[in-house]
Every structure is written in C-alpha cells, then in structure tokens.
Structures
1.
Amino acid sequence: MLSLIARTALTKNSSVWLPGIRAMSSGGPTAPFTTLSISHPATAVTHVELHRPEKRNAMNRAFWSEMVDCFSQIAADPDCRVVVVSGAGKMFTSGIDLMDMASDILQPEGDDMARTSWNMRRIITKYQETFSVIEKCPKPVVVAVHSACIGGGVDLITACDIRLCTQDAWFQVKEVDIGLAADVGTLQRLPKVIGSRSLVNELALTARKMYADEAKSSGLVSRVFDDKEAMMAAALELAGEIAGRSPVAVQGTKVNLIYSRDHSVAEGLDYMATWNMSMLQTQDVMKSAQASMEKKSPKEVAFSKL
Ligand SMILES: CCC/C=C/C=C/C(=O)SCCNC(=O)CCNC(=O)[C@H](O)C(C)(C)COP(=O)(O)OP(=O)(O)OC[C@H]1O[C@@H](n2cnc3c(N)ncnc32)[C@H](O)[C@@H]1OP(=O)(O)O
C-alpha cells in the first residue's frame, strides 16, 4: 500500500483554500472500474491511478473503455477542478496489453475487405478516444510518471496538460517494435509537446528509450523528482494550486490553450473573444480582483462550483 502525504488541501466543506494534510492511498481498482483506482486526496482534486500493477498496468480491453467512462464523469463533475494521473506498482505502464491486442485489433470482423477495414477504422477510432477524452476534459490533468512509460503510455501522457516524472523514469515510443505505427495520439501530439521534430522522429522511428534528464531538457516533462513519493507530493501540491483558483478561469485557460495549439493566432484570438464574451461576465473576476486589491491569494476566494 502506497501512502503519500499531501502537503496542502482544501478544507472539506468550503471552497476556501487552507493548508492541510490528506493521505493519498493506492488501494485496488474502484468499482465500477477494474483497471483504475479513483480517489479524492483533496477537495476538488481527483486522483486516477492506473491499477493493474501485477501486469505492469498493461492497457487491457477494460482499460480502454474505462478511461472514457472515467474522464467523461470527471468532465461533468462540478466537484472536480483538477485531475492527477499516476500508475500503481513497479512502473507507470507497459503500454497496450499484448495478450488482449491479438483478440481485438488483430482480428477485425467483416464479410469482405471493405467491411473489415470499416470495422478496423471504428476500432482504432474508439481506441483514440481513450486518450482524447483527457484532452477534451476541461479540467487540467497532471500526470506523474515513475519508471517505465511505454507505447500507449506515451500516447496517454501527451494528452495530459502537465507532465512530471521521477529520476528513474524512461519513455519509449515502442510501437514500431511491435510492427505498427503509433495510432492513438503520440504521432499527432508528441511533435506539439517536444520542440525538436528531429528528436520526435528519432524516438518514433527507433523506439529508443528516453530517460528523465532528456525528457526534461526536451520539454516532455516540466519537472523531475528523486522518487515517487516526492513526485506525488508535488503533483498534489500543484493540483492544489490549480484547484484553488477560479474554475472559470482555469478551464477557460485549458480549452483555449488546446484550441490555439491547433489553430492560427488569428483563429485563436477569435475563439478567445467568443469564449470570453460570456465567461468574462462571471462573478469570479470581481471576486478575484477584489482579493488581489486586498493582497489576498486567489486561493482565499470562495468560487462557485462549475
Ligand atoms: C489501436 C491500438 C493502439 C495502441 C497501441 C499501443 C502500443 C503499445 O503500447 S506498444 C508497447 C507494448 N508493450 C511492450 O512491448 C512491453 C512488454 N513488456 C515488457 O517489456 C516488460 O514486461 C516490462 C519491461 C514492461 C516489465 O518487465 P518486468 O520484468 O518488470 O515484468 P514482467 O515479469 O515482464 O511482467 C510482469 C507481468 O506483466 C505482464 N505484462 C507486462 N507488460 C505487458 C503487456 N504490455 N501486455 C500484457 N502483459 C504484460 C507480463 O506478461 C507478466 O505477467 P505474468 O507472467 O502473468 O506475471
């Protein structure tokens, strides 16, 4: 049982930020899930833990659909303002479950090539949704990686908003080694995360491992920690910093950052203007501005749920 101490937390019955200590624990999968453990280590913070440690958190059939259900619920949950994702056990994840892969992806049904291909397309699109839901979720997602992050793990983390790792972490775009071009997000998102196109190409074409220091210097992760305990404490502290701020401002920031990543500056500004023509009318602006004038932290403001 992994027991981690949160350095800060919101008090249970208030939106006002106060320092506190909460235990963050790794039990087993949380019903109705069989591959995920969901907990609430601090008010407004949801912890999603990949939980198949005996199989190195390999992504089996259940995982691919449970992530969609989980993040759809989180997106609609007004009590959640920020998410932390991590892996239970020895490593973050060993990627797709190679045993399950054979029964699903490698044997699509269909009476002829057109129908088989159509079914295959539907399956791939469904798999893509497993990580796209993270990006579509307006709540920021902080991912904390320890030890190995292989194949589908890289697809997952590139859909997250903030990436942290331990000093012993390594990342591997492993798909070419199992005979396929990565098809659930890495090839689309990694080039937007890492500045160097050459490095992305090298990683994806050779499947070489990238270790923590290079992950940091290339921009894949923003911070590296000595061990998992330190990383999880920092992830929770970071989540608390985000959760203590206006959810209107925070979620609007995530949505517009992703929109601007995929559009021109002019299109991004246009989208922003349309977004804020309603969102600027929130009471959060007045509350935050008043707190600022009074030299208070935004974390001291009681924001309504969103
Ligand atoms: C449309 C779909 C798109 C998605 C594409 C995704 C692609 C990918 O993810 S490519 C990457 C696939 N993954 C791998 O190739 C990794 C394979 N595993 C390993 O290399 C090692 O297991 C690993 C280095 C991760 C861990 O080594 P360690 O010595 O710590 O543990 P093991 O004894 O090897 O494993 C423990 C048990 O876990 C099972 N397991 C590990 N990884 C997987 C996996 N990916 N799929 C299924 N099962 C896995 C392993 O068989 C052991 O099980 P058991 O023998 O029953 O104890």
Note: The pocket of LH2PNOKW is lined by residues 55-56, 58, 90, 94-99, 105, 124, 127, 148, 150-152, 174-175, 178, 183-184 (CB under 6 Å).
2.
Amino acid sequence: MTDSLDNLRNQIDELDQKLQDLLNERATLAHKVAEVKIATDPNPVFYRPEREAQVLRKVKERNQGPLDGETMARFFREVMSACLALEQRMKVAFLGPEGTFTQQAALKHFGHAVESVPLGAIDEVFREVEAGAAHYGVVPVENSTEGVVNHTLDTFMTSELKICGEVELRIHHHLLAGQHTQRDKVTRVYSHQQTLAQCRQWLDAHMPGVERIAVSSNAEAARRLSDEWNAMAIAGEMAEELYGLEAVQRNIEDRPDNTTRFLIIGRQDTPASGKDKTSLMVSGKNRPGLLFEVLAPFRDEGINLTRLESRPSRTANWSYVFFVDCEGHKEDGNLQAVLDKLEAAGNTIKLLGSYPKAVL
Ligand SMILES: C=C(O[C@@H]1C=C(C(=O)O)C=C[C@H]1O)C(=O)O
C-alpha cells in the first residue's frame, strides 16, 4: 500500500516545522555562546575554526544516509554560518574580483552568511587582515597541476598573520563566449596565466592558432567579453554566471582531478581540533646537508610531512627558506620536540600556524 501524495506532503510539512524550530533553537544557543564569550573575554573571538571543524566531522561520522555525509556537512556549514552571523557578521577578504575561485573557496569554508570583500592582489588581502579591516582573508597557495603560488608563500615571509584553516576546491575551467562573440572569428583567448597553463594541452589541440592572453584573473577575462567580439575567456562557473556568459566547452582542464588549495589567514592562533596540520618556515645557513638536517627531526618524531617547498630567502643570493607543512598541532609533544631540535641546531623557525585539516 503506497502513501498518497497528500499524506507524504503533510508528513514533510510537519518535519519542516520541526526542523525550522530546531534550527531557531540552535541559533538561540549560538547567540548565548556569544554572550558568554563577551562576558569572559575583553577581546572575544567569535569564529572558532577548531570547533566548526569538530562539528562538521561529527556530522559526517554519525550520518546514516540516504543523504551522503558531504551533503549533510554542507547543510551544517550553512547552518553554522548563519548562527555565527547572529554573533558577529564576518568580513572575509579574498583575491578578487567577484567570481574568482578564491571567492568560491571563501564561501565553501565560511558559508554564505559572511560579507566577502574582493581585493586586487594577494598582499592586499594580507594587509586588509593585518589592519583589522577584515576578520579573515583567503588566498590560493597551491594547485595540483601547476604547483605553488609563489606570491602567497613570499608574503608569509614578512607577515605576522596566522594560518587558521585550509580549503580545497576542485577546479573546472570552461571556454566561455559572450553575447557579442562571433564564434567563428575568435583570434584571442583570455584567462589567468595559471588557468592557461592548466588548459595548455586542450588549447594546443583545439585552438592552436588562437593567441593566449594572460590577464589578472579569470573573472577579469570573463568581464572583458562584454566589449569584444573576437575573443573568448576561460573561467569557472561563478564568473560565467556573474558575467552572463555561455559555455562553449565545459571542463577543458588537462587533468580531471585539478584541485587548488587555499589558506585562511587571520590574527589569532587556533587551538587543536584533534585532526590538525601545521605550517612553518625554516631557514638556516647554507651548508652541505641542511635540508637533510631540517627533515630528520620530523622522521625521528614520526611526523608525516604533507608538503615541502623551497623559496629564495630574498636576503642573500642562493640562500633558501623551506616551507614545511606537516600533520599535527604545534602544541603536540612530538611537534614541540621537532621545533626544539630545529632551533637547537641554529635554524630560524617561523610558525605560520596550526589549523584543522579541511573537512569539506
Ligand atoms: C557557537 C559558537 O560560535 C561559532 C558558531 C558555531 C556553531 O554555530 O556551531 C561554532 C563555532 C563558532 O564559529 C561556538 O563557539 O561554539
């Protein structure tokens, strides 16, 4: 015996009522949390990345379906975002303009109840957060096809900001045309240099004679189509929608698993969430075996490295700074031991932050 449509819809209405009441009950509790924070701390910090990561992990762990854990966690991401906005509306600076993947990463990490502020360059995002004009910032740090975003690493050398989170985003690039584009007369294609590199093989095969022009962002490439008739742009879905463009060909990235990792930067340290990562910079006097000596303590303490980059130190030619990402929190005993050993060996260490491993 199947239920009638009316009966099923009545049951859904009843559940929606309960869900709505429960969500408001949750929001009231979050508001009370804010009151406690204000009462107990002269400089209250409302956004707590470690707590949010724990909430999202619990959602995934206890999920029974039929909705999958990722989907459920995304719902809760938005619920927390709205609850946090009742405590304080977050201002999040990102590498703009509107419609960039960095904006998409910011909204994936913070949910949609934040004010996202586009800025023109990576160091501007750092400065906005340093000056307190934004609570947090979001910058790209590495791409699985094209490697590290040097500018972000270099800016950490001179900044006191802390990394308080990471986000990964699958990156899909689309070939886009505007209203005025004469598709059979296209002589140039605009995009950010990283994007052109991530679509190099596709462009070689399908648009061999078309000039590739690197512009400051994919969104800027999309924007340009409004007043050009012989050009196309490569950009993501957000830019496509924002500028009212049409996809000529979707997913033209050379690698189907093309992913970019972004960092959340803020002014506070983040307590341990239980599953954390730590990023640090190590520099030492150039000598035979320096890198080996830097890495040995991690091996000795059984700490897994997730990334290692070297960059010119900018203090003297051919001297380098190592950027290390590892598993664990800086308060963990074994990581403390690593830091002590590195310092005892005469290296300079700058801790860039410990932060929860990406959940979404
Ligand atoms: C409610 C809190 O404040 C914020 C909102 C959270 C939530 O809605 O669950 C979690 C962490 C904080 O970002 C809290 O710190 O517990």
Note: Residues 22 and 289 are 59 Å apart (CA to CA).
